[in-house]
Amino acid sequence: MNTITDTNYNFPGQKSVYKGKVREVYNINDELLVMIATDRLSAFDVVMPKGIPFKGQILNQIATKMMKATEDLVPNWLIATPDPNVAVGHLCEPFKVEMVIRGYLSGHAAREYKAGKRLLCGVIMPEGMKENDKFPAPIITPSTKADNGEHDEDISREEILTKGIVSEEDYLILEDYTHKLFQRGTEIAAKRGLILVDTKYEFGKTKDGKIVLIDEIHTPDSSRYFYTEGYEERQQKNEPQKQLSKEFVRQWLISNGFQGKEGQEIPEMNNEYITSVSERYIELYENITGETFEKADVSEVEKRIKNNVIQYLKK
Fold this sequence. Notes:
Blueprint: E1 14-19, E2 23-28, E3 32-37, E4 42-43, E5 46-47, H1 55-70, E6 78-83, E7 86-90, E8 93-94, E9 97-104, H2 107-114, E10 119-120, E11 123-124, E12 134-140, E13 143-144, H3 157-162, H4 168-191, E14 194-205, E15 211-214, E16 223-227, H5 231-236, E17 243-244, H6 247-255, H7 271-289, H8 301-314
Antiparallel strand pairs: 1-2, 2-3, 3-7, 4-5, 6-7, 8-14, 9-12, 9-13, 9-14, 10-11, 14-15, 14-16, 16-17
Helix pairs in contact: 1-7
């Protein structure tokens, strides 16, 4: 169970470090960002006490593969991946919204729908839908980018523009990029016998004002996938869909009385359960990429990351 759940590096030229729920981002000379994907597991905006073996490697490698598979459509921040857990890219000023796009009525949208709501982030959801039905066309339901410990919150396009969170000119580009990425992600998933149900994208601006895709893309942490085979049959029988996403962790937590609400205690995750989560993430990787997952050497994982990053920066 050798996992990486926290890093405290001091790289050459390091200006600052930002620690998110899962990733830790080191600013190098106000030019580069070194992003380390840890093995931390976050659900309901709460970081679980124990790490998941190989999760950081899985997320980083899926994200970098997907960046390369979409760079002809949308420019991104990525320059190099000097370590299985590390991505290095251009320093960007992130937009303070996450662009969530949904092709199906699932997850948060389905929970809101069940509660009787038909308006999500200013977008009307049609009547007569049941959970996991496909929307007539994908809908964009943005959320605010929460600071540490806070919950992301739904926000409408109108609110984003009225509050001046993003300019209209920039927001139109974010919308366009979001639709293009989701279309490409849908096509990639279809080739693997998967349905890309919903996902989120984050964008930033480079020093010269270019809008680029940042952070992760089409990973099981940021996206939900269904298996194409049996999808229609399950919908007709009102059965749950077979999913490839972090939703299985959320459902386990819900069944154990935890939804990130005040006063609730995180249920104990024993080693057997943690191993099963790790295995599910490996399954996700192999299904999403169509490649066999190769476990990196984690005997001295912190030292390995440090050495690989320093070697890269020296170049």
